[in-house]
Specification:
Blueprint lengths: L14 E7 L6 H14 L3 E6 L2 H4 L6 E4 L2 E4 H7 L4 H13 L3 E6 L2 H9 L5 E3 L7 H8 L5 E4 L5 H11 L17 E6 L14 H9 L3 E5 L6 H8 L2 E7 L17 H17 L1 H12 L1 H8 L19 E5 L14 E5 L37
Parallel strand pairs: 1-2, 1-10, 2-5, 6-7, 7-8, 8-9, 9-10
Antiparallel strand pairs: 3-4, 11-12
């Protein structure tokens, strides 16, 4: 997998991504400070999230505890909405620092805004792996895709890759005439994720099963263990959340790496690339113990990790009512959306059913925010 102007992605020189997400909190000055710090710490790429709250969740989703107090999660996402010009500034500054700009859209409008920025690559977050319409849209861009696979099963990944490969023509912004390029990022959707849940031997199996390069999106707190072991299992991309301080108020700051720890990770990865996988593994076993290393490497069988099992069908997308729908009412296109379920609401039908919902009659009362199920229509 090759990005325009950059070397082939490979375990011999992994792409190191600093996930800034929304930790800038809409402050352009802080965002630039974070980008510069990430570059200094050894990042090759910085990633952002283009947030439009209504694309992600319903106001009735629930609350989140933050340092300033408890707030509705929907309201927190509303606070993170920013104009397209903000992201254009981020892209320009990121590239001026010699880094690759990467961003995650969460729905059709944020995807439209991002496409206008002409990114060289795009990232799909784990909860959107089953968001059929979004994947179909991005398949038309013909740019390389990083597809995160947290809280997913093999069948979910297969469907997502089939959808991404449904677009026509070769990738743009690459030095290759190959068809659609996708790198699958193994991920555990827990914050933080225990290192022992990572099952890193699955990387090679995923690459062989699906015929794609692989990487890891690491939510564990240890700056070195998962990234270095992942490299030895074939990871050509390593992503870690990045912050200036874990005491900052960003949603992901408590599990992110501040600059000294990100730098430590980057140096460990580069040393491992030089030493090679066998010598690196032997050194880690001496330092950490054989049992600990075996626990992180796991069985290689793709299953839901213990820390993310309860998130399945909740963090990923399903069809939800946007308003109260009374029994007998015809459901209009604007009455539902494909959003995340999260903790309080019930999951609905898979996103691929969305084109078949409009025009159906509700068989029973469907409260606003709740998932729409087969028995409801």
């Amino acid at each position: 997998m090759k990005i325009a102007g950059r070397a082939e992605l490979s375990p011999r020189h992994a792409l190191l991504i600093a996930e800034l997400g929304t930790s800038h909190n809409g402050d352009l000055g802080k965002a630039k400070e974070m980008i510069a710090a990430a570059a200094q710490a050894g990042a090759d790429c910085v990633k952002f999230q283009l947030v439009i709250a209504d694309e992600i969740l319903h106001p009735n989703t629930g609350e989140v505890a933050l340092p300033g107090g408890t707030i509705r999660l929907y309201d927190r996402f509303k606070e993170l909405e920013l104009p397209p010009e903000f992201y254009a500034e981020l892209k320009n500054f990121t590239e001026s620092e010699g880094l690759l700009f990467l961003c995650t859209p969460f729905g059709m409008e944020s995807a439209r805004i991002l496409r206008e920025l002409q990114p060289k690559m795009v990232k799909i977050a784990s909860p959107e792996l089953n968001y059929t319409a979004l994947l179909e849209e991005i398949s038309q861009w013909r740019v390389p895709v990083l597809l995160s696979s947290g809280v997913s099963r093999l069948g979910d990944i297969e469907e997502a890759l089939d959808t991404l490969n449904s677009g026509k023509g070769p990738c743009e912004n690459t030095d290759s005439d190959d068809s659609m390029q996708v790198c699958l990022l193994h991920c555990v959707t827990a914050y933080p994720a225990p290192e022992s849940d990572y099952n890193l031997r699955v990387l090679g199996n995923l690459s062989r099963i699906f015929g794609v390069p692989v990487g890891v999106s690491d939510h564990s707190l240890d700056p070195e263990l998962v990234p270095v072991l992942a490299l030895g299992q074939g990871a050509c991309v390593i992503e870690k959340h990045f912050c200036l301080s874990r005491a900052d108020p960003g949603l992901d700051d408590p599990i992110a790496l501040p600059p000294p720890l990100f730098s430590r990770m980057a140096q460990a990865v580069r040393r491992a690339e030089e030493a090679g996988p066998e010598a690196t593994l032997a050194e880690l076993i001496r330092e950490r113990g054989e049992a600990a290393i075996a626990g992180v490497l796991g069985s290689g069988i793709k299953t839901l990790a213990p820390s993310e099992k309860t998130n399945y069908s909740r963090t990923n997308r399903s069809i939800h009512a946007l308003r109260d729908i009374k029994a007998g009412q015809t459901i209009a296109a604007g009455d539902f959306a494909v959003i995340r379920t999260e903790k309080l609401l019930r999951p609905g039908l898979k996103p691929s059913w969305a084109p078949l919902i409009a025009g159906r009659k509700a068989q029973r009362f469907i409260p606003a925010g709740e998932g729409i199920r087969f028995e409801d229509i």
